[in-house]
């Protein structure tokens, strides 16, 4: 095993979100699978059209999941099947959530659910560079201190391992069926934090 000191440094940098990601669900139950699938498809298309009408770009709008399963019913009840689609939306308009949700509710009515929303930073590369620099600086300061305590000088770096993390602002809710939302409804994002941890091995100096 190489002699030296192994330390972990961490760095965190915060930035202002520039993208809102929303996850919506559309579902429908019917006595047979074909009807459930057909009806949920129609309502999903209606929601998609409404969102396009708000200016959501095609590349930022799509179906991310499709499910069909037997719906739970009381014993001796007629069987039913539930189909559901999950729609993923991205937008740079951080203040238009109320208008977006209203349009989806108008299009799908009681079939719509809101799975959640998340504020994020689309390009985190600059924040990662800053966090990495802070993490390495902390690791070197720790290693220098430990080397001094042990009576050694610090040598060259012989290994580095990196772990990244980020902490977007999230909110979870369920859409209240066909109830209308105030189109002025604003959810204000806080800072988004990017974190980098570095495990660094320093050899002892000559």
From TrEMBL:
Coiled-coil blocks: none
Species per Swiss-Prot/TrEMBL record: Kribbella kalugense
Protein origin, superkingdom: Bacteria
Protein name: Secreted protein
GO biological process terms held by the UniProt record: DNA damage response
Pfam families found in the cross-reference section: SIMPL
Database matches in PANTHER family: PERIPLASMIC IMMUNOGENIC PROTEIN (PTHR34387:SF1), SLR1258 PROTEIN (PTHR34387)
Family matches, as InterPro entries: 26kDa_periplasmic_antigen (IPR052022), SIMPL/DUF541 (IPR007497)
